[in-house]
């Protein structure tokens, strides 16, 4: 099919104006650029993983560096997109494209598959406030959505534990996003594009600038972006849901021990025939008929959220004296996000039993009604919305300590706040009376009595009526952190092979969070809304640490670091000392052998500690036990992906202890010339006393395996799992045998370990006639990944588990060809096999290709064309049922393309 990209008129106008300016500038006579001088010996720099400046980027631990230029040329949309595609990021995470999650307005990563809370995210070496809502309702994490890519100098990814340098959280690794320090002039960047299959269009405008004014150096960046939602209806393979269509109107007589009998609704299905895109039909079930549509789920499901964001960054450095520099920077990010994962549905369920006593028929009945977009005035009227505001500020001074020749210091105050307001559409408490009429009392069993008009169930709802029976519940969530730190580094003493250097760090900080739900949830204002309490807490932290670099021999260097952190929370304290050591052996200038060992820890997540007893329901649930007992495959099971899903009960625990980790690695780097280098590293990470809540899906899978004999029902895991799942009695009048609640609470019980290898190759080829070719390859393979839920359980090999969606290996290959005014980049990413949605086998590996072409119009302007997923691949997976693709692992967007224009003003 022909490739078409639809650009908004405003974006086209901006491109035209800027393009005209660029062409005019190109026509002017330009002075020839001065010949570039050979680069001087690189100055000492601080690389993530050490606070001691060094001349070499390579150290005892491997660090992957991704430059801001590479982010653009390799087709990454933003900082998160760049990080999630790195080979070290092997863990499965839920984000903006996942649908039903606790945090669809946030994005995160999981290095080595150890979870987003085990990866420490830093901005210029400083911590950011957590996203205020816990990932999967359990763990705290850092959102990566608010960092403007235009001012990113580079991103450094440290592999392995680094608590001795950075404290808690740095178990799987550290990601340090380093921003540019200064710039001259102004750059305006406009980027717009979309997908060839339709939907998911996006636009971005960036203005970056700065200047040097004697002793003052400034930089600022403003980024405005918007992303259109992608609806399931915009992809033909998931626009209709196969199997049993969704019930949109039914009347069922409830009978004990059975699923009841549906009462024929007469001509209702014909009257509703044009709803949900004309897909409503009468569905004949075993126990009667009802009105149904196979498009309800796809209609009310956005596979990518809608987003509008405004990010502003500013920094200033003032040289107070030759020895002292004052600095300040701030970051403000505002995001508005929307998605839709379920539509307005009503079942006579405010009674708590999903049925009532019909005075007209003298029978127990359950009525159901799903309201269509055609009735309420558009599908977006039932969107869930988030308004997020993230701020970070840093103030300080740095320079040389008076009276010394080599000692440097940095005193810094860092504060960060993240606020999130969510607005969730809900049915109001009056919805029962809207469909059933006034309540006439209750019977002897406490079941409410109504005398409803059957015609009400068969009549359309008007937009005004919809407004009278629905509203929004509003929650207010906040997280914050602030830290005061003093760091020093300098020469310690002279050794035969060189000067021993030392760096020290002292920190004191405090952080907190609060989740404030809508008070009306507990006041009966909404229909069948589960009660929710305020959750809030704080903790303080004190830390002292030191790191020493020891030139033991002209070819051997050692590094030692130690740090003590002490946390105070919930009326108690928890302190941990961590250490690490590293060796660098250089038998020849072009060859480096390295080894490192580190201990690390993670203080218990505040959400785990302070979580008040929370109740709610999952958006959808698969009852694996009932599917297995009925002999039904998951993709065709009547109990799979039921929406809404089971209720849950969640509690926190103030007795949790810190997790303990240790890691070690060995590697080699060979760099025979400035045009070629290759590195190979082995890593191994272990975590003890892992704090965890099993996911509801994992609990239900284990429950099925325990009840159906696949696991030893007397094992510790089965004993715990069966105690977590409460079911209605098999002979209950309604919902017989169904899941009543799933209890999830955190425990210090688990162990997890992971190991693997990383390989990196870079080669630069310069030719006289054909330009320069830069080849780069990064590969990571997980060799082992084992977990144990309870002491005494059999260890689970996650690499062989069909419940583990992490990547087994990832490969990135890129080549950049620069010739004259053209720069062309090809990136090919290969993803390993992963289990299919049904848990019955594996999906084959897949390779995706991105290309970009950058043309330099003149010294001020560039024009770029970027195409991602060049061959328009969409990974399909029918094994788990709708939506028929591996959600969270691959995207259903298909081919995407952008046009990008950049113009520089000033010097």
From TrEMBL:
Residues 1-27 form the signal peptide. The keyword Signal applies. Pfam families: Plug, TonB_dep_Rec_b-barrel. It is found in: Cell outer membrane. PROSITE patterns: TONB_DEPENDENT_REC_3 (PS52016). Its main location: membrane. GO terms for cellular component: cell outer membrane. Residues 58-174 form the TonB-dependent receptor plug domain. Residues 348-870 form the TonB-dependent receptor-like beta-barrel domain. It comes from the Bacteria. It is a multi-pass membrane protein. Keywords: Cell outer membrane, Membrane, Receptor, Signal, TonB box, Transmembrane, Transmembrane beta strand, Transport. PANTHER family: PTHR47234, TONB-DEPENDENT RECEPTOR. Belongs to the TonB-dependent receptor family. This is TonB-dependent receptor. It comes from Janthinobacterium svalbardensis.
